[in-house]
Amino acid sequence: MAEANRNLWAPWRMEYIKSIDDVDEGCFLCRYWESPEKNRENHVLWRERHVFVVMNKFPYTNGHLLVAPAEHTADFGGLDDDVAAEMATATRDGVRVLTEAIGPHGFNIGTNLDRCAGAGLPGHVHTHIVPRWNGDTNFMAVVGDVRVIPQSLDALYEDLLAAAGKLGLGAGK
Questions:
Q1: Where are the beta strands (DSSP E) in 17-159?
Q2: Whole-structure pTM value
Q3: What is the CATH number of the domain that holds 157?
Q4: Which end of the chain is more exposed for a tag (fewer CB within 10 A), N or C?
Q5: Residue 30 belongs to what domain range?
Q6: Is 126 one of the annotated active-site residues of the chain?
Q7: If phi over 0 gives left and psi between -120 and 50 gives alpha, with beta otherwise, what is residue 6?
Q8: Quick check: is 18 in a domain?
Q9: What pLDDT tens digit does each residue of the chain (173 aa) get?
Q10: What sign results for the dihedral spanned by CA atoms 79, 165, 160, 44?
């Protein structure tokens, strides 16, 4: 018996595919930092003096956040001590916000340095906070090589903003 075609329609992925090598637009993290008036549109949750926390527009799982410095640099080892400390604190606070808002059972936290290590944006260092749940590696990811994101970015953004405010982060700080 011939194997049936397996199609999963994900038209939103085309935006990501087209943006991978979009040199005309420059670095999206720099654009986000330079446009605080567009925080909601860009899903920026909060800003500190040297870093900011933003939702990943193309998440691995629901609630995937990025913590990035304002400075456009790929040199993680060359970050100023104040910036590195602020990134660590913002990462910790990102975990707190996600725990408050969506209650994950665990987290993957990491920084991919350069393309060979999986960095999709190798020119601007950033840390990923990926919430995880017991049993979240289900048949969709294992059999279909597909991830299911159960909530829209906009709806989750509102939940995370509320949790950040409750914890005294961001504008309510």
A1: 44-47, 51-55, 65-69, 106-110, 127-132
A2: 0.77
A3: 3.30.428.10
A4: N
A5: 23-172
A6: yes
A7: beta
A8: no
A9: 555 555 445 555 555 555 555 545 689 999 999 999 999 999 999 999 999 999 998 887 889 999 999 999 999 999 999 999 999 999 999 999 999 999 999 999 999 888 887 778 889 999 999 999 887 654 444 444 555 555 678 888 988 999 999 999 875 45
A10: negative
